[in-house]
Amino acid sequence: MATSADPTRPSEDNMPTTEATPLLGAPESGPSAIIRSNGHASKPTFTGSSSPTITDPTTTNDTTEEEDEPEKPFPYTQIALLCYASLAEPVAYFAIFPFINEMVFRLGQHQSPPIPESSVGFWTGTIESLFSVVQMLLMIVYGRAADRWGRKPVLVFSLAGVSVATAVFGLSGSLGGMIVARCFAGLFAGSVVTVRTMISENCTKQSQARAFSWYMFMRNMGIFVGPLIGGPLACPADPARYPGAFCKTKLSTTFPYALATFTAGAVCFSGCVLCVFFLKETLDRTPTLDADGGPVTTPTKKIEMSTLEVLRSPGVPMVLYILGHSNLASLGYTAVSPVWLFTSVKLGGVSFDDRMIAAFLAVAGASQALWILLVFPPLQKRFATGNVLRGTTMMFPVLVASMPFFNELRRHGEDKVFWLAFLPSLAVCSSVAMSFACIQLAINDIAPSSHVLATVNALALAVNSGVRAFAPVVFTSLFAVGVKSQWADGHLVWVVLFVLAVGLHVACWFLPKQAEGRYEQQGAKRKAV
């Protein structure tokens, strides 16, 4: 039975507020924003009272509001534009992966002393990490800018900047130049904050799972598109790589990786252009109106949970821990894979060239994207978020353990067995990508109140960026240590990752009940009442 409203208590339906809402979960910012369930804002509200209103967001009944919230048509065009814009960051991040090891090795030969092959992993990990370090430091700045000046201008600025930064990376003539260019790219990598905000603002509680499924799919497509650009287009003037040398310009000869990075930059810039002309602003600055039709100017007060209170809320620490643990293990694997593929068989790798590395990363990205798009929605609907999360994380230890096994196959001349097992196992084990979508849904469900959904998401993004800042350099350095020492034939890093993968699966059994994602069961209970 629905609970009747108490006219003596302030409610969200007659409550103006003058405080700007946080970025991620709230569709409105500014003096007029009235927060609804799951961060959705109401239309302008008329009020006959000018007295200050005090409300505690932790006491609102979000469940009732979600039931009363009318379903609106799914905004296909806007979600499609935002999903395409979300390609920019993974394309910019992963486009250099197929050739960065070779680029570091080539430019490192001009160092004094030259960089040996065994130290390439340290340099590549450092360069890859700088992107996330700078991104983490500026994430809050991008969020506040989007709250003040609007989502669209900040998104367009970020996309334009990362397009240029990605392009100029290929013009680096030294290791120092590579470091500066990578920091420059991280400086403009704020699109992820704005895109996630605008997707949330375009959707209702019922439709956001589908929208974020498409978002995760496109992010994984970026993992596919980035290497597909970076691998085949690297060194186009090299006759040893391409017998016809299809691009013999002076630029391609002087800067062999420029064509790859300029193409990746063009993909990012195309998203910028589409957003300029077709994307709609979601930050609503419509003022709250009083009974006479004029704007409310009387200051109001709003009691909010502090960041520390949100962090201590039931279930939040555990979900954030699972997120951080998942990112640590997955980013460690992602960072080590290219250098492992590049490393010779005798040192613990599989001796792939740039094109084969690009093919590996492309297959992995495409497989993950297909798992998320085609398999995850029906699987989550039937088995709920928690069960899918636990099931998919079981595949992570299998994926990690297969890597030293493949090296041993090549080390002992079993190439036929290697190729028969390598790609199929990669495609199957890529199902672990569904765990990332599960964790995103768990983050949305664990928020103690719709008013602090933005804070929970901001904490999650901070954890993500923080892990991305150090995980690549730690694990690639660990790989380099294992290669140099030849402990267990150079498989030290895979032993560490295996332990992390097993620990992740164990942690998922402690997922809070409110994050299990049993939406249909919860809905049935509400209807029964």
Automatic annotation (TrEMBL):
Entry's transmembrane regions: 79-100, 120-142, 154-173, 179-199, 211-234, 254-279, 318-336, 356-376, 388-406, 418-439, 451-471, 491-511
Superkingdom, taxonomy of origin: Eukaryota
Region described as Disordered: spans on this chain: 1-72
Membrane protein topology class: Multi-pass membrane protein
Record's compositionally biased regions (Low complexity): 47-62
Signal peptide span: none
Keyword set, alphabetical order: Membrane, Transmembrane, Transmembrane helix, Transport
Major facilitator superfamily (MFS) profile domain: residues covered: 78-515
InterPro entries registered for this protein in UniProt: MFS, MFS_dom, MFS_trans_sf
One cellular component term from this protein's GO annotations in UniProt: membrane
Main localisation: membrane
Listed GO MF terms: transmembrane transporter activity
Subcellular location: Membrane
Protein name, as recorded: Major facilitator superfamily (MFS) profile domain-containing protein
Species of origin: Meristemomyces frigidus
